[in-house]
Amino acid sequence: MSGTTLLTILGAAIDNDLKEAIAVAQTVDAHLSVVAMGVAPSPPIGEVGAAAALTSVWLETRAAEEQALTARAEQLEGLLAADSVKGDVSDAYVEAGIIADEVGRRGRCADAIFIGPSLRKDPVLGSSVLEAALFETGVPVVVAPAGSPPDLGCERIVVAWNSSFESARALHAAIGLLPKVRHVHIAMVDPKASETDGGEEPGADIAAYLARKGYDVSVDRLAGMGLAPEAVLTRHASDVAAGMLVMGAYSHSRLRQRIFGGVTRSMLESPPLPLLLAH
């Protein structure tokens, strides 16, 4: 899609995540916006004399880390140029308490955010960046297994559908971001007919909407058979050779994780295939 901006945030392990972000951006000739992020130590607190000594060490540590982060950003610029990728690089040295604000501000100026496998495992940045990307930006988040960067030019997707606000947001984000999609599978695990939630034929309403837009749509009502919903969805996406599984993230409270009984967390920790998530 012309003019697409993909944001990625890198922690300490930059090489693999950057390579995967570049591969994702190249699938749709996107502009890749890279942020090298570091977490600043909290200021020292203590008795007056001790605090003064600690403050000196703290300031020296901050200065050294900021300098290293600037050097890392320059290195990233060189890597982007070497791959002839359209993009920009900046650095952000922030305290832990404002990671969400920083990610939110930057994410609102992108079409999607790619979170690489190394960052997801980062004990300091990982969960903070991921939750901020989902809750503070208003744009979809793309994740994938290590070594399998998602193809934003894929033609077939599976949408995990439960008629919720979040699943609708994810679907609309997907069809806006993925320019070559032609085949959409509306997948539901053990759906129940309801007058107030999907009607007597679950999935038929959203399928009709997509068909009017020209998509080839199938409604796939899947039997759970006692399996975890994420296992059913993953197997189905593999069976139909989908390029991406599209999901709403954290229906209702993030603490309750009610989407399909808490699928979001388990899928984020170990994505079995490329995922597009939106809240």
UniProtKB/TrEMBL annotation:
Domain UspA: 155-278
One Pfam family from the record: Usp
Xref: PANTHER family: STRESS RESPONSE PROTEIN NHAX, UNIVERSAL STRESS PROTEIN HP_0031
Family membership noted in the UniProt record: Belongs to the universal stress protein A family.
Name of the protein in question: Universal stress protein family protein
